[in-house]
Amino acid sequence: MNKTKRRIFKTAIKLFAEKGFDNAGIEEITAVSGVAKGSLYYHFETKEEIFDTLLDSGFKLLENSCEIKFRHKETAKEKLDAIILILIKVVVLYEEFASVVISNSLCDNERGIKCQKEIENFCKKIEEVIQEGIDKGEFKECNAEDLSYLIFSTTYSTAMYRFKKNKNATSSEIYDDYSKTVLEGLLK
User: Fold this and answer.
1) Which domains does the chain have, with CATH numbers?
2) Of 2, 18, 92, 126, which has the highest C-beta tally within 10 A?
């Protein structure tokens, strides 16, 4: 992504998070980013394309981070720990991304459906790890699908709450508190 496209993209994410997608207009994105409208349209055909790029980039980051971490993890617990820490880091490092995804996932429109689908795909990865842990006897018997959504949603909401409450909170601090509460209850 070149410098101008990145500036447009970052500005749009910030405005989507602050005002909501529908209330962040192209004119405002160009004004705040200091880019001419023609430049914006050169890089993105529509505001929806900016949103799609945000969604694709964010979830690719999550997936790639998990793949990298999983190479060095042997147990399902280690993999689940890694997923949770990655989710927390995304909230801390990319707060606007997390806010835009969660707020739009609650909508019954095309953007909402896209967000729901991305969350569903990521929760499938969590579910696979949970099922692996159950199969190997690391985790208690449970509904892996339901638990995957519970872990995703509680990790995101806990991290968002903690980070908004204390901007100085580190990913590690949030993770330590969260894992003591949630993960220890899952282990045999």
Assistant:
1) 1-45 (1.10.10.60), 51-186 (1.10.357.10)
2) 126
